[in-house]
Amino acid sequence: MSAKTRMWHGLGTVLAVVTAGGVLLGAGPAASAASTGMVTAPTNLHVVSETFTDLNLAWNASSGSGVQYELFIDGNVYAKYPLETPSVDVQLGPAYGLTGGSTHTFQVQAFNGDGGKALSNKLTVTLGPGDSTAPTAPANMHVVSQNADGVTLGWDPSSDPDSPDLTYFLGFGGCASAGSTGGFIPSQAVNPVCGITPGNTYTASVFSQDPSGNDSPHSNTVTFTFKG
Predict the structure, then answer these.
(1) pLDDT value at residue 181
(2) With contact defined as beta carbons under 8 Å apart, do 63 and 40 qualify?
(3) Which among 41, 99, 147, 193 counts the fewest CB atoms within 10 Å?
């Protein structure tokens, strides 16, 4: 996905991101960073790039047989492991707790199947301010077609200068569903929980959300009677 690259601010030689519930797991690494067994310590842990949605990290590879890596963020192991290459894409955003302006510490541990372990330098990073620009409202909400299975609705997409990868949420009555540039509302026979019933009239609208969690205004509403 496309996103504006932001400047990051390193503090000393330590790196950072925010911990997220259910995303960062396990205990922190051992205090010693010395090489052990057949594994040498990773070096030069650093930021390669940062966007509104991703923080790309890299380091100099360890030497040894069957070396793999795990990343610790603020002392907790990041769940996207183990890795066999000396780099990782850490996903930012509210789902991970990696929010704009927050400061965090990263460290990489190399290990192998023989029990060798070694820690890299620490790196602390203050993330950029984040994406606070909401998408524009979807427009021209309308009925595309309907048959016995349900009604298909369409709209003109939102725009967002920072995050073109948007998710759309279609709402009607007390139900909602996610779509791309069009949405389908099933009949009650297809979906008895959120379905629509022949002969009844419904009003629907849609809004979009960017990867940073910014919601657009709602579109115009469309009212339709389901013929069934």
Answers:
(1) 62
(2) yes
(3) 193
Considering only CA atoms, which of 101, 102, 130, 91 is closest in space to residue 214?
Answer: 130
Same domain, 15 and 91: yes
Q: What is the pLDDT of residues 116-126, one digit of tens each?
A: 899 999 999 99
d(CA 66, CA 53): 31
Residue in the structure block whose two tokens are 């949605």: 53
pTM of model > 0.85: no
Cis peptide before 82 (omega within 30 of 0): yes
Q: Any idea what the CATH number is for the domain that residue 65 is in?
A: 2.60.40.10
3-state secondary structure 25-86: ECCCCCCCCCCECCECCCEEEEEEEECCCEEEEEEECCCCCCCEEEEEECCEEECCCCECCC
The answer to whether the CB of 99 falls within 8 A of the CB of 19 is no
Structural domain of 165: 139-225
- Residues 85-102 have pLDDT tens digits of 999 999 887 656 788 899
Instruction: List beta partners, residue 58.
Output: 46, 87
Strand, coil or helix: 181: coil
pLDDT tier at 114, thresholds 50, 70, 90: confident
Whether 20 contacts 99, CB under 8 Å: no
pLDDT at 72 over 70: yes
